[in-house]
Amino acid sequence: MTPRIMDKAARVLASPLGYTDEQRMHESLAHLRAHAPVSWVEAEGYRPFWAITKHADIMDIERQNDLFTNDPRPLLAIAEADDVLRAQMEAGIGLRTLIHMDDPLHRDMRKIGADWFRPKAMRALKTRCDELAKIYVDKMLERGPELDFVQEIAVNFPLYIILSLLGLPESDFPRMLKLTQEMFGGDDEEFQRGGKTDDMLAVLLDFFNYFNALTASRREHPTEDLSSAIANATINGEPLSDMDTASYYVIVASAGHDTTSAGIAGGLLELIRNPGELQRLQNDPSLMGTAVEEMIRCIVPVKEFMRTAQADTEVRGVPIAEGEAVLLSYVSANRDEEVFADPMRFDVGRDPNKHLSFGYGVHFCLGAALARMEMNSFFTELVPRIKSIELAGEPELMATTFVGGLKRLPIRYSLK
């Protein structure tokens, strides 16, 4: 048997705190890309997996969605959580979102929400995005000259967009914010409800109870929003189960909020760290599209997804056995020296920009167009109005192995 390639640098991918130290993370990933791009990882508390760190390998795996499947391990979680969620899914009572599914079910479920994220729907939302962007930049002007940009602006602007799309009342927004932060902050002591698997399951139960009530309401009184489309959807003539319906809401409400929030906060930090690029963008607003893509490349709100091999195969000549899991490190792919010139540089005009922050292939992010539009609207409003901006304290990153970004960004600024 060929010895497994095991590079200790890859253990950082199974460390929530590893993602709070950008320098260490990027140094470790650069080492892996150069010396062990396919590395076996055994980390305490987790089942073993292969760490995949090269852009080309990740794209190849994403293309082969029959060979490398999302089920049964779509993301990195501690073994105890894997076991509990697997048992729940088998009993028909567990979270089962698009990221847990494979075709043909994934394809059919994706169609339910697809129309709400196509260009026509985005054009209809653009006016609302622009209005909210102005409201929140005006809030910055009123609130200045200092604030925590994450907690006062970045977490709120995209939440209003996604929950407006779902048709939820404004009075429920604080509840949704708390639940989404608890869901994706499960590895962070500040945001987690508790440190045990049962605490995470309690968060999911709160989500389900809320959305089950919403489903009943939308089935009795349909409205013109995404919630009604989900509540009244059918597959092969049959309505979705209560669990699948609630799971659909969860992925839209949580992923649609937290990823964009991370992108906006991280994008502003990059502009602060790179004042020359901020000035360049102010001088040439036509660069906003490429600037947003560069923010998304550098921030990588979704750190990884996992796939499981359905047959013996190999990646970059390394044997991968049937049943073994691979972790696709998007953080690493987006800094791959073979794809991006000077990958550690933030370049608002970078073109082409083949980042993998939205994934690739059949599982490409359903809400990618919305995230891009929200970020574009916000920075189109903010950037021309900046007279000065700087850090007013140390930025803090969330501890996570899945979705996350900044949890604190203290800034001092002056706006027009």
UniProtKB/TrEMBL annotation:
Gene3D superfamilies: Cytochrome P450. It holds the Pfam family p450. Keywords: Cholesterol metabolism, Heme, Iron, Lipid degradation, Lipid metabolism, Metal-binding, Monooxygenase, Oxidoreductase, Steroid metabolism, Sterol metabolism. GO terms for biological process: cholesterol catabolic process. Pathway: Steroid metabolism; cholesterol degradation. PROSITE patterns: CYTOCHROME_P450 (PS00086). It comes from the Bacteria. Its cofactor is heme. CDD domains: CYP142-like. GO terms for molecular function: cholest-4-en-3-one 26-monooxygenase activity; heme binding; iron ion binding; steroid hydroxylase activity. Belongs to the cytochrome P450 family. This is Steroid C26-monooxygenase. It comes from Mycolicibacterium aromaticivorans JS19b1 = JCM 16368.
